[in-house]
Amino acid sequence: METPAPTFSPATAADAPALADLINRAYRSEASQAGWTTEGHLLDGPRVDEETLRTMLAAPAAVLLKAELSGQLAGCVYLENQGKYLYLSMLAVAPEAQAHGLGRQLLGAAEAHARQLGCASIQMSVLELRPELLAWYERQGYRRTGASEPFPATTRFGRPRQPLTLLALEKAIANG
Q1: Per-domain residue ranges for the chain?
Q2: CATH superfamily of domain region 7-172
Q3: Helix, strand or coil for residue 28?
Q4: Confidence tier at 29 by pLDDT (50, 70, 90)
Q5: pLDDT of residue 65
Q6: Torsion region of 95: left, alpha or beta (phi above 0 gives left; psi -120 to 50 gives alpha)
Q7: Rg of the chain on CA atoms, in Å
């Protein structure tokens, strides 16, 4: 059976409860443990809460694109315009929708958004201890910049079980 094509649209504050559920299931739930996208072995607690999502959605230079399959929320990606580049974070695909190319399609939608804005590149931060995820992004054309930073000392994104480092990745976007 062929997977239906996703539809992409900007999320609104009304989507926050469903998005928080999707993101937390993709990153830290028991269901995510079966897939390769989990980070539950590195961090405790939720990846995001509804209040944080509402704040992110209210940012004037940001959009959270949601992906729906047959009318059901299946994925999302947060994009923030930083002028010369678009910052990408919180790429999430529901555990039951993984391994069918939706993550790549979300990256494609992010790249189209970056082109629309005239951004020269997309940048993101990925946990250094996620070699399989780093390799996946590299297969999608992202490159390590050499920059790194410690995981934030806040519990806003979860509680690290050990010291963690974020690596910067970047992909140039052709405009034209």
Answers
A1: 7-172
A2: Gcn5-related N-acetyltransferase (GNAT) (3.40.630.30)
A3: helix
A4: low
A5: 96
A6: alpha
A7: 15
